[in-house]
Amino acid sequence: MNPLEQEIAAEIARRGPMSFARFMALALYHPRWGYYSRGAGIGRDFHTSPEIHPLFGALIARQVAECWELLDRPATMDVVELGGGNGGLAASLLRELKQEWPACAAAVCYRIVERSAALRARQRQRLRGLPVSWGGVPRVVQGLVLSNEFFDALPVHLVIVRQGQLREQYVDWTGEEFRFVEGPPSTRRLAAYFQRVGVQPVEDIPLEVNLAATTVIKQIGRALHRGWVITIDYGAPAALRYDPQRFRGVLTCYAGGSWNYEPLRRVGEQDITAHIDFTALSRWGREVGLQPVGLLTQREFLRNLGLDAYLHALSERPLDLASWEWNREAMVQLAAPGGLGRFLVFGQAAGGASVLLMGFSGSQRAPLLRERARLRIPLLGGTDALPTEEG
Ligand SMILES: C[S@@+](CC[C@H](N)C(=O)[O-])C[C@H]1O[C@@H](n2cnc3c(N)ncnc32)[C@H](O)[C@@H]1O
User: Fold this and answer.
1) Domain over 49-154+212-234+275-364 is classified CATH 3.30.470.20
2) What H or E segment, with its residue span, contains residue 109?
């Protein structure tokens, strides 16, 4: 047993079985042994879009530039990134802005909201020299709140319906291993959740409920006075997300480059992640003034922002064959239909901000985004790369 497993077993011995949300919070974010608190993971156990190719951040920079223009080029504009991971999105986005839209770059106040101290340290090292601050969600945000694979890393409750009754799955310790036991729901919010998203949960199949996501989206909606929320993650609208016949997406764990469905094993040594219910983000967001502006696949979103033009321009760059292949493969991977390309991108607007964004509509209305004669293509292994020596 590792020290985290011992600590969780001791807590269960003292207080009885714990909700899976508590278990997952400890497994991922225990201050000393949690998977993310130790800084483990991204780039080793699993790969995220910003770390696959800096073009991901560069394309989102175009969206940021358009937002700045749509807000009438304010002197300052917030960009708040939730869950910065290794800092790849901030690095590529800010470098692209600085190169291509320096006036917008000068206006952007980039803030990373990151729970893990180890990851904050990594971000600080990678983003040295770039204008970034760290802290919580500011009380007032005018601009953009961005996230990639943030909501899927929030602790979820597990519920199951037995003979028409909603039950919760708790984690117990047998003396030898952790196992699930069932009991009444720990909070009324669980039953209310399904009513709210308009889904009758099926019987006898464990379902994840991300109450934390509803709390976070409300916090963001209250803070965002004018601007947009752009959430990139895997999942589906509730009707699909909670239909096991149509949607195959169970709690998944990542360790050492492979995945498994054993969240109670290797505690603190593997990522645990759940698919997002985008209907919940929409419903709870509406409560605090967030208006949905679009839900597209990542493939569609990146293509709307010009992915194909970059792929085309890459062919015209005088690269050696190996670099060309390496970059092209990674760029294509960002939009691969069976892979990252099927992630969803959800947009919400607040405070009367335009509901027509380039990423969702494909139309370039902002003059500043008009095609340049020559696209600057960020390349793998460039200044955006994660340093190999960790500080
Ligand atoms: C799956 S990783 C994604 C990282 C990064 N966005 C990427 O795409 O590579 C989830 C990130 O969210 C952070 N995180 C999770 N819960 C958080 C919270 N409540 N507040 C801030 N950061 C959080 C984790 O520490 C981690 O950096």
Assistant:
1) no
2) strand 108-113
